[in-house]
Amino acid sequence: MLRSMFSAISGLRGHQTMMDVIANNISNVNTVGFKSSRVNFQDILSQTIKGATAANGTLGSINPAQVGLGMTLAGIDVIQTQGNLQSTGKVTDMAIQGDGFFVLADGNNQFYTRDGAFDIAIDGSLENPASGLKVQGWQADAGGKIDTTKPVTNILIPIGQRTTALATSTASVRGNLDAGAAADATSDISTTLTVYDSLGVAHSVKVTFEKTANNAWSWTASPDAADPGTTTTSTGTVTFNDDGTIAASTGTLDVAFTNGAATPISIDGAWTAATPPAPNPPAPKLDFTQMTQFAGTSEPASRTDGFASGQLVTFAVGDSGEITGVYSNGQTQALGQIALASFLNPSGLMRAGQNTFQTSSASGSAAVGKPGGGGRGQVVTGSLEMSNVDLATQFTSMITAERGFQANSRVITTSDEMLQELVNLKR
Predict the structure, then answer these.
(1) Cα separation, 190 vs 110, whole angstroms
(2) Angle ∠(297,298,303) on CA atoms, nearest 5
(3) Residues 83-141: pLDDT tens digits?
(4) I want to staple 306 with a disulfide (CB 3.0 to 4.6 A). Which of 110, 139, 194, 196 is the partner?
(5) DSSP letter for each residue of 336-383
């Protein structure tokens, strides 16, 4: 008689725990990146009333007779399924499409989360503003190179940081020169090169082409009249083949800055089609190789490298987790790489509060790497992953837990009534 009461008590305790888990799931239905849990039960050791016997002669085997002693909690599983993504439009909000976790750190310990509601801290680091934990990844060097073989560190996005200027080192002129132009000054056509000195100051240099003979043109560089600090006396030639393609070019573009504020620039433009460098010829510094000479309008266009100093004004995050900075001078450069972690058994992670997990002996160690590899998903910027709690399932489980609790309480009531009848036998 007492066995039934104690079995029912174990059932009450188990279904109370089930209700606790369901209530926690429902309370986190709108928690970013939350993963729901479920309860599993199992029976406990049974009392053997009669053991089993094997077949003997003409008698068959006899099964054991056992009375169960109730139930216990087998485990509480974390359901690591994908939640729906909600667009927020905020550049620092990130979600993971697929498996994996963001890596956060407090300086001593690492934490793992699907909650990508990040922001930029006052020191420029990317962090979770609710907990202050820093997002981990790899920082790019001054040249924008990222080494993912190094240990992860705090990601810094230094908004407002100024870059150094880059002096012009290469220039190119492309486009067409009119094959039908007369070989005199009436054929003159020009284009303007924007040349940056070592301080990032832009200078305009006008390159004028004049046809000197059939398939032959001369070019002359002259400074902008509005820029008295710039001087150049550069000249050269450009010749074409009979099929309109470039044959060769000569001359060096020399630009000096007489104000003494920046280093003079010299760009060598010598190039010969008959003897190009091999096997993969690099683009010449002053590149005329994209020019043609066909009948039609002369339309030369120029392009140079180099840029003025600029400030970091915003950034973007790609699917691979690479953070690219956008500067006020129009330049872009890699700032860092966000790291993701994967686990052999993600359900074995331990909840650490604040939407984070920590490793356990069941989860295994974290495999940290770039998004998109090693079973890690892609990063979706401007979005957040919502909770994967299914309310329909939770309410159905709530009814199941309520009925299970009710049935076990009825067992206790019935057992009590039977004990009462036993006591009444004495009367």
Answers:
(1) 61
(2) 135
(3) 999 999 999 999 999 999 999 999 899 999 999 999 999 999 999 999 999 999 999 99
(4) 196
(5) EEE-EEE-S-GGGPEEEETTEEE--TTT---EEE-TTSTT--EEEETE
| CA separation, residue 182 to residues 111, 212, 216, 288, 357 (Å) | 74, 9, 11, 21, 77
- Tell me: cis bond preceding 279? Omega within 30 of 0 counts: yes
Task: Write the Ramachandran bin of 252: left for phi over 0, alpha for psi from -120 to 50, otherwise beta.
Answer: beta
Distance CA 24, CA 357 (A): 16
Instruction: Pull the structure tokens for residue 22.
Output: 């369901």
Please list the residues that pair with 172 across neighbouring strands: 287, 303
How wide is the angle at C-alpha 249 spanned by C-alphas 248 and 252, nearest 5°?
155
The helix or strand, by DSSP H or E, that contains position 239, with its residue range, turns out to be strand 235-240
Task: Enumerate residues 6+ apart whose C-beta is below 8 A from 219.
Answer: 207, 208, 209, 210, 235, 236, 237, 238, 251
Residue 15 structure tokens:
């279904």
The domains located in the chain, with CATH, are 2-80+389-424 (no CATH), 86-163+312-385 (no CATH), 171-304 (2.60.98.20)
